[in-house]
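pasting for ref. prot 1 ->
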Amino acid sequence: SHALIGISLLIILMILNKKWMLSRRVGIYIMLTLFSVFLILPSINYLVEKRFIMSKASHVFLMAHLADNGILDRFLQENCEEEEFKNCTLCEMKDSMPMDLSGFLWTSDVIEKSGGWEGSKEEYDKIINATLTRPDYLFANVFKSVSAGVQQLFRVEIGQGVSFMGEDSPPYGQIKKHLSKELINFRNSKQNQWQGMALKMEFINHLHKLLLISCLFIFLALRFSSLWALLDSATRNFVWFVLLAIIINSLVTGGLNTPNERFHARVVWMFPLSIIILLGKNYRVIYNHLASKLKKA
């Protein structure tokens, strides 16, 4: 997803072709760097697995995404009688499998019954390719992915996934095995005290949302006032760049996976940062403009 986010952002910037964004030469250098990911990752996998692939499990996550947005259920109900798909193991489970991403991946035995993380590739790829090549399913895929990306824009909560991790959790076992001296500290952390009840993030999330709303209000107030044209162009463009990057991050992560707070919280903080930079760089211009307005009033 990071490679796709970077490439999408760069392509849009090059299409806009503004001088403040990128020169053609710099754009080409960055593009080559981003596309090198599609050589480096398969090369690393080849050294380890002797297979030149980006990921061994991408087909599983894409199938879970189809389950989450409802396309998999529709496809199986409509196509399991076809000769091409009637022997698929997913067709045998179509009325009992979980139709959400986390359930498909982590809390059911669907993957194991359909061949495991690697053995399921042929069957999953066949269904995924069908949903991308048949126009009615392709349109549904695009619509659902864009809708999920828009939903992702509003998932800004901090701390998703930071919950109680008991003895049966993967982190506990790994810490006990490799960092046994830290196990007592891990068990006594706020994350684990009182079954995780000691770690509450409601207050910080209220402040976080208030900060984001305040920054959005400041941005809109400046953008639609005569003051906007007086501000330093570099900082104005930086704000636009950050907003564009945040939107692309939401569309890619929400569209390929499912809306999840941690995908957006990792980047949305850049918007308040850009507003702080904008105000800090232009405070004299803003102060003089407001003082002039007050004097006239």
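and prot 2 ->
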Amino acid sequence: MFTRKRIKTQERSVASIWQQLLEKELTTEGVKRVKEIYPGRLNSDSGPDFREAIIAVEGADLIKGDIEVHVRSSDWYNHGHHSNPEYNNVILHVVMWHNSSTATLRQDGKSVPVLCLSKALRHQAYLMPYRQLPCFEISKRVDKGTLGRLLNSAGEERFKQKARHFQAELQREEVNQVLWKGIMRALGYSKNTKPFEELADRVPLNFIENMKPRGSLFLKQACLLGIAGLLPSQRSQGESAQEETVEELERVWWLVGRGAKAMRESDWNLSRIYPNNSPVRRIVAQSYLLQRYCSEGLLGGMLQLVRETPVVTGSRWLEDALTVSGDGYWQDHFDFNLRSRTRASALLGRGKASEIMVNVVLPFVFSWGEICGEMELEQKAFKFYLNYPRLAENEITHHMARQLCLKDMAELTACHQQGMIQIFRNYCREGKCTQCPLVN
């Protein structure tokens, strides 16, 4: 049994039982029958306990959404979920005891059916999670080489889907802007993807790369942070920090930003995120990348990087090209007025740099090479992807490793991991186990 650390001990049994009810038809408190098609993936962040689950509800089509588990149904209100929009995608409230006469209502006013396990199961014991999924313990039925090829094939499919997405964008926007938006989206993680994309639209790459003087890092930082609405004077504290670097940024923004329509602080998700993932730090990291490639431009720098880097030993070079350590003020600050007791980690570390390279730069360069007829560039980007070492685990790859009972992750490549994500998104969360390439 495994559950995220923030689930209280008493709730772990409820979460574990929910994971073991695949294809079981159960009756909710509203006397409707529901069947678990896919339990969802355990959420290690804020919000509902399980994400992207699928249930079949009597008299309705398949429903996809989140699952929240509690020991008692009254905990929904005790924990304040009824007033939290993060829970507006919950489709089922799974509890051990139903002790509330009040319906489970989301913040948007919709009612959520309650599944009371003490009634539905009558305390029947179920064994380990995922045991009824066709892919459970697949390594015992499929040799390592075959499983690797299947994951690799799914990873290649995911890469080419990304490339097709970039090709479609290249039909609508300038090439350098497509790359710019892709990198900016990646900097936002899941919680700030949209605001980062909006910032990229408000500050086009052509504009910021051609600002004069072109070599001014402060100018780039002030412009990006100012348009983002994240300078101290634009935020709830309402005044600048009394620090030289901050005062200089505010001064530059006052000179260049007059009349500009900035985003609002409320457009950003600034709470419940790791300090290193602060949008402010990521925006500052992007300014350093722009400064690094100010002579050839970000687009030219990325194309030249892929052209000149050797495939066999080049992943570290690609990583270095996007890693940003930062200096001065940003060596020990997570945000304005938020200083680390020790030196903060890199503005853009190797893990995130590799993730951007695999998910954005390489599929973008592949698609650009295909459009321009540069077959050598296209093939080289794809070879880099196939040979790229394993990335840091994320929630989905961790979930899939548990689901497939993969104990040895050391031999996996980034392509294998991308294959796991592709299978999760196209088959697991769609309830298409019978069509999954891993079991057919």
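The chain has a mean pLDDT of 89.
The first helix runs from residue 9 to 19.
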